[in-house]
Write a structure and sequence with these properties.
Elements (H helix, E strand, L loop, with lengths): L1 H26 L16 E2 L2 E2 L1 E6 L3 E8 L4 E7 L2 E7 L1 E7 L2 E7 L4 E4 L3 E7 L5 E8 L1
Antiparallel strand pairs: 1-2, 3-4, 4-11, 5-10, 6-9, 6-11, 7-8, 7-10
Length: 136
């Protein structure tokens, strides 16, 4: 009985050490080749912020993002979210499916149920404004 108990403790200790080693090796390595992307609030354009916090509570974070003509949003990630276009324009969007140009009209809504990444550039002639509602 004692040998069995010793084996269970040793096995559990081994598994804990293995998972911690994996996290250190793959998750915390400063020389890791995995890109670390900013979230939409941290990402900007030419070192200037494009989003501001409108609301931040235990359930949601609401961002207002403004893009003048020629202004974009560097590559960033989004947690699951809902978006609404207060003022639309034309955008060049680069994401995992490629590069495309789209007209984003005023009063347009969109949502993503999974984490997504992209970068955008306002190629239109009007300032675009979005509300992004992120779920916590």
């Amino acid at each position: 009985m004692c040998k069995f108990k010793y084996f269970r403790i040793t096995k559990a200790l081994f598994l804990v050490c293995f998972f911690v080693s994996c996290l250190v090796f793959w998750g915390c390595n400063e020389n890791s080749t995995l890109p670390v992307l900013p979230d939409p609030l941290e990402a900007g354009w030419n070192n200037e912020a494009v989003c501001e916090v409108v609301e931040d509570n235990a359930k949601i974070r609401v961002l207002k993002c403004t893009f003048a003509p020629g202004v974009g949003h560097e590559k960033h990630y989004h947690n699951p979210h809902f978006g609404y276009t207060l003022a639309g324009s034309q955008f060049r969007i680069k994401d995992t499916t490629g590069i495309r140009e789209v007209n984003v009209p005023t009063d347009y809504s969109f949502s993503k149920e999974a984490i997504s990444t992209h970068e955008v550039l306002n190629i239109g002639d009007s300032t675009a404004v979005f509300l992004i509602i992120e779920y916590k």
